[in-house]
Structure formats: C-alpha cells, structure tokens
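lol forgot to send this yesterday, sorry. struct tokens for the thing we talked abt
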C-alpha cells in the first residue's frame, strides 16, 4: 500500500530545520504525496516562542560559550527528554495534527520534535505511523537527535552515518540521501571553471549573523580588484545602506541584496561563498559545488559542518577581516579553486530532496 500523507515537524531555531522541511515537502508534492509542515512550538506559544528564538540568536552571536554549555548539557544529560514534558501545549497541537491528518509517516527535522512525539507515544505504545528523523548537521550530532525513537534516519553524508553507526544505530535505519536542498540544485549546473581572462571572480558574502563585523569585512574585500562582490543582508536594512554607502565612497561596484527568495541561485552563480557554518548553508554550497569560506561557527552543532569541509579540503575557515581577505585570495587562484571543486564532488547531493522523498515513498505504512 502506497503512503498517502506525511507530517513534517520543524522548529525555527536555525534556518536549516525549516529549509529541510520545505524542500522535502516540495519533493513529496512532486511525487503526488500530500504533506504538511508544522512548527508546533510556534503554533502553541506564539510570541513567547519568538522571544526564545531571539534569545537563541543573541546567545550564538554574543555569548557562544554559554550556548556551548547548553549544547553539551543536551548531549550528555537527559535535559531534552526529561524536560520536554513541560511543553504540554505543543504536544496537544501535535496531537490535533496527527488526529486530523492521520499521516502514514511523521518526519522530524528538529530533535525536540522527536522527543515531543514520545510524550504522546511513550516506549511500548504502538505508533500508527512510521517515524523518520532528518539530521540537519554533520559529524557533531547531539544525542538529542537519536535518544528518542525513530524508525529511520535521513543523513547528509556518509561521514555522519559513520558517527551514528559507531554509537550503535543499526545500518538498516541509516539512509544517506543528503540534506534536502532546494530542487533547483538538481538542475544541470555548468561545470565549475575559473573565470576567463579579464573576467572577475564572483564572490557572495551572506551576512546572516555577525552583522557588527560585516562592514570591516566588506571594506577589506573591496580592496581586491579581481573579484566582483555580492552581499546579502537579510532584513537588516540599516546594514545594507551602510555597505552601499561604503562602496560608493570608494567608487567600487557592490551588489547589496536584502532578503532574497533566490538565495540558492546566488550560491550557484558565484564562484565562492562566504558565510557562517549553518547546516543549510553548508549543504547548499556543497550541492552547488561552490567552495565556501566559513566566517563563524556556532559551538556545538556547527563545528561538525566546518570539520566536514576542512577535513575534505572542500572549504576554509577564516575568522576576522584579514583572515577572510587572505582566504579569498587563496581560493580565487586557478589551481586552488579547481582543487576545492574536486574535493567538494564526493560531498555534493544536489538531488537530496527528491532522493529523500523517494525513500519516504518506499516506506510502506
């Protein structure tokens, strides 16, 4: 019997969870399978949830040591599983979605969602659906991802599968289909080549955190005559104006974008990406085979994303304007650039959303 519906659970603590959910839902639609994406924490707690999200962003940007302590507590203690029961309102919202949809599969792209399911279906209670966990980071996998029940795991790469295998998760539950990136990446992409003589290197700087350091970084990058720089600033209008003024004063062209819906296309069309080590950002760069320079690493979950790139020689870590300038100069040289592109190839999963959807389709109710 074919599956008919899939409930996908996410949470807005890091864009990777939402991105994976949206992209997987789009691929399921392509297969004719009904799906819904829900953030039950946002639905249950509204303004309070948004306040906590803002606190999370402030913590990872300004007090990363504090966030590292929290991450380690979640990894080494039953903090998540023991504390999830306080989210009774979210559990009720989740129950209503399950009762209404009667899904064949429930997918979790955020670890807290899996533990929330266990408040409704504790150990020994039969579930009327299959459970699948989409892990959105690499290598440094917090225990909260796998200490709750999940029939299957969708993983971003073989390196992460090795980590889970070592802690005792059975091989038949591990599926390396890749992080569900937008289906745009599955479209043919021109072979990565160095610019023709006289053409600039196209460099994209995505400022999705660390806004206070962005002007100094852009000022350094504008000193490189061989690059054409694009910068995205999201909803930070003031930063966008500041960068535009900075470039105008120097008489150097600079494309500054606010929030853009086609960020994936920007990643595909540029030679180099500069940004933080977020799960979605790293995986989209890999899908596009775009070498990446990482400027910020959130302690805990993003450490593995950075390791994945650097250990494979598929990217660099450079923190601070001078280091970023030097990294761009390194990557934007013909021999180094082609070496980075070759190293990325084994880690690239441009069809991951479709492959993940096909996997879900294969799981009989």
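and heres what i got for the seq, position by position
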């Amino acid at each position: 019997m074919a599956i008919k519906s899939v409930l996908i659970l996410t949470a807005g603590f890091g864009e990777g969870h939402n991105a994976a959910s949206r992209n997987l839902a789009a691929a399921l639609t392509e297969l004719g399978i009904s799906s819904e994406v829900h953030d039950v924490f946002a639905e249950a707690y509204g303004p309070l949830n948004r306040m906590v999200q803002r606190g999370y962003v402030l913590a990872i940007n300004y007090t990363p040591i504090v966030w590292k302590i929290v991450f380690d507590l979640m990894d080494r203690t039953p903090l998540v599983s023991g504390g999830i029961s306080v989210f009774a309102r979210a559990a009720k919202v989740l129950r209503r979605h399950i009762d209404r949809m009667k899904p064949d599969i429930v997918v979790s792209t955020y670890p807290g969602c899996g533990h929330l399911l266990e408040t409704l279906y504790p150990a020994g209670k039969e579930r009327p659906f299959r459970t699948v966990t989409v892990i959105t980071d690499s290598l440094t996998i917090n225990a909260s991802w796998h200490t709750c029940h999940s029939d299957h795991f969708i993983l971003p790469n073989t390196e992460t599968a090795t980590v889970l295998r070592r802690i005792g998760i059975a091989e038949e539950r591990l599926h390396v289909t890749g992080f569900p990136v937008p289906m745009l990446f599955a479209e043919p992409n021109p072979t990565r080549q160095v610019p023709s003589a006289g053409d600039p290197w196209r460099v994209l700087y995505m400022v999705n955190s660390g806004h206070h350091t962005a002007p100094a970084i852009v000022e350094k990058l504008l000193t490189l005559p061989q690059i054409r720089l694009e910068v995205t600033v999201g909803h930070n209008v003031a930063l966008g104006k500041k960068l535009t003024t900075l470039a105008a004063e120097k008489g150097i062209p600079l494309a500054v974008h606010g929030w853009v819906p086609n960020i994936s296309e920007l990643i595909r069309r540029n030679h180099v990406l500069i940004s933080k080590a977020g799960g979605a950002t790293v995986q989209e760069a890999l899908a596009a085979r775009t070498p990446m320079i990482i400027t910020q690493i959130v302690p805990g979950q993003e450490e593995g994303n950075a390791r994945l790139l650097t250990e494979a020689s598929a990217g660099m870590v450079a923190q601070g304007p001078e280091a970023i300038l030097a990294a761009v100069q390194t990557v934007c040289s013909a021999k180094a650039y082609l070496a980075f592109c070759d190293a990325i190839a084994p880690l690239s999963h441009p069809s991951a959303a479709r492959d993940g959807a096909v996997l879900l389709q294969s799981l009989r109710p």
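The mean pLDDT is 93. anyway ping me if u want another try
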